[in-house]
Target: ABC transporter substrate-binding protein
Amino acid sequence: MMTKTANVSGGLPSPARVNSEGAKVLRAGFIPLVDASVLIAAAEFGFARKEGLTLDLVKDVSWANVRDRLAFRQFDIAHMLSPMPVASMLGLGSNPSPTIAPFSLGRGGNAITLSTRLFDRMRNDAGLPEAAGALDHARALAKVLAAMKTHGEQLLTFGVTYPFSSHNYEFRYWLAAGGIDPDKEVKLVVVPPPMTSDALAAGAIDGFCVGAPWNMVASERGVGRIVAAKQDIWPSAPEKVIGMRPDWAETHPETVSRLIVALDAAARWCDQPENHDVLAAALADPRYIAASVEIIRRVLAGEFSLDARGNRRVIANYFTFHSGFANYPRPSHALWIYSQMIRWGQAEASLNSARAAAFAYRPDLYRAALGDGNAPVDADIRVEGSEEGDRFMDGHVFDPAELPAYVAGFAVRSALPFGSGSDEI
Model:
């Protein structure tokens, strides 16, 4: 497919700007998900070329591969899970390598899908009404799990995409809000996003939390029921970011700025509904997501087929690619991710670790590229979940200044006490 040029101003596209660091071909890894739209659009529709950049997009099979190939310099930049840079700066995981995120790829896109077998049991055994909400679903699942324990049945197995992922933390948050301990009452395993629907159909897993379009693929195949969306858990929850090595960013400052400008323009374009038909066609290409154009188009519109029975749901702004400063890498989001790592025993708690976590997100690079006028006016570290329309599903509010009390305030957790970790990073 030839590279296209998006006409976002109504006139001819502007000529490419000259990069004093030389012609730049950036090798970029990505996973086939709709939340890679901004990166794909920047490559496909001329936004990168206008900034003197060429994006060589490489589709990968797992987040661990993306992490390792960025660390080993096979990639210059990467489509990454929002917690991955935080984990890297904390030295977590099998191959931690310093990674920063100067740009977020937007908000939304995740959902939790359970097998139709399990959902039918929830509806029949727990009296779940058809119009139940996300919290109702979690509580119904808790009743089923209690009955399964009484009868000596095996633990249910649920899939997430990566241990340090928004999917893992959102699935755990949803389970815990329903009174379920995700470390004791169910089993969580890693399943690559494109394999989730097949794994559900085969009975290898009983549910999953993953990004679009794979939830809808499962529901339309008749093997899954969507029971919660990211917006139900926390609308502003960080999702995917552009990750890069700090040393690469330091030695290529102009290229980083040009990249952010290109991605910002692509994000604006992706947000416009009139562009979604063209975007969906590009994403459906086998080089990218290789899924139905129709499913992708409906996902972009937030039109959900919850199951094969015809139950539907429309989620306004299910994907937000640009508006509301969706691309701003806010350090308080990184600190919320860190709080969940502590909550689930992945990370020790210390002030130095909190500083390292916050430093994974780099609003300074975002501002350097786009200017303060394109950045939010409120503080980079703010209270999260306190505003109408942006609440956590269980009513908690995250104040980064009270991180120990926040973690301790959850009834379901497996947290280390704050201060138990070293004061040194």
